[in-house]
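Structure (tokenized):
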């Protein structure tokens, strides 16, 4: 039996354990921010509640990327992430909207219930259809986007632009319709694009990187305009794309929800449906006993 060389460094088990815990730490941070947003809204701190849900969305974005980068993803992490998302992007935005706009009506809480139900349904379908990770497209509006849309609506209504040009609108009524819209889109069949990958090798990757830099600048300089505006733009893009493709009656070249990993050459492996389609069962005749069996 060989003994370890005393000159070689010992395995850093503590570092490995820390890497495994890191994605779950971001997930729990997501939960902490979601609960904090609920508490803030109950205290009347509506703008702060909205920004806390935005921060929770960033935490949700990073936990999955860290898990994939460190190759520490697990089924436990996927289930934990879904349960936390149900709170931060289901319960929290619904209660924020309720405390701001709907609490005066006798049945305003029903709209919050409808939104929470749609968010939970969306997360469950996502886990079943796409195993908790989407690489090609989202089937329905992602729950973080829906949550950010609702939670930043109030901050947008307080901006000078809204007060000057849209101040005559019924803000609570618009909030109710917006809640129903994003709830319906979460359980719809509308496809929404995933966040593009950053790269300097392709023009698409460079464009995505440039848009990311511009988004960071806008997020810190005009957050009340940026987050709600980007969420509405993303929602409108998915709807418009679906309508246009519907009018053109175009079928996708491949299943848009077929999230196959890239092969070693960077090409997407295509699935041969002939290999997986059910084969007809052959009818067997009477079974002939073998010689070593009884009559």
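Design, position by position:
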């Amino acid at each position: 039996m060989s003994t370890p060389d005393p000159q070689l460094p010992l395995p850093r088990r503590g570092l490995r354990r820390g890497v495994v815990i890191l994605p779950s730490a971001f997930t729990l941070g997501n939960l902490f921010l979601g609960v904090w947003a609920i508490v803030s809204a109950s205290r009347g701190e509506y703008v702060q509640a909205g920004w806390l849900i935005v921060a929770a969305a960033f935490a949700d974005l990073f936990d999955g990327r860290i898990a994939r980068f460190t190759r520490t993803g697990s089924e436990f992490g996927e289930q934990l992430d879904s349960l936390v998302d149900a709170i931060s992007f289901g319960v929290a935005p619904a209660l924020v909207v309720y405390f701001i706009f709907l609490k005066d009506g006798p049945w305003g809480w029903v709209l919050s219930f409808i939104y929470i139900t749609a968010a939970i349904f969306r997360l469950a379908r996502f886990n079943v259809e796409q195993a908790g990770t989407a690489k090609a497209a989202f089937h329905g509006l992602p729950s973080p986007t829906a949550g950010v849309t609702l939670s930043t609506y109030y901050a947008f209504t307080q901006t000078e632009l809204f007060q000057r040009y849209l101040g005559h609108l019924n803000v609570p009524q618009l909030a109710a319709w917006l809640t129903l819209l994003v709830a319906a889109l979460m359980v719809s069949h509308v496809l929404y694009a995933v966040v593009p990958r950053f790269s300097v090798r392709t023009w698409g990757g460079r464009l995505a990187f440039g848009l990311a830099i511009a988004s960071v600048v806008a997020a810190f300089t005009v957050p009340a305009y940026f987050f709600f505006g980007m969420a509405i733009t993303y929602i409108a893009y998915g709807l418009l794309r679906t309508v246009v493709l519907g009018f053109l009656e175009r079928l996708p070249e491949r299943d848009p929800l077929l999230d196959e990993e890239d092969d070693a050459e960077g090409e997407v492996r295509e699935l041969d449906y002939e290999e997986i389609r059910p084969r007809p069962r052959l009818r067997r005749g009477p079974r002939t006993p073998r010689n070593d069996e009884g009559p």
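Reviewer-requested clarification: The chain is about 65% helix and 0% strand. The first helix runs from residue 13 to 42.
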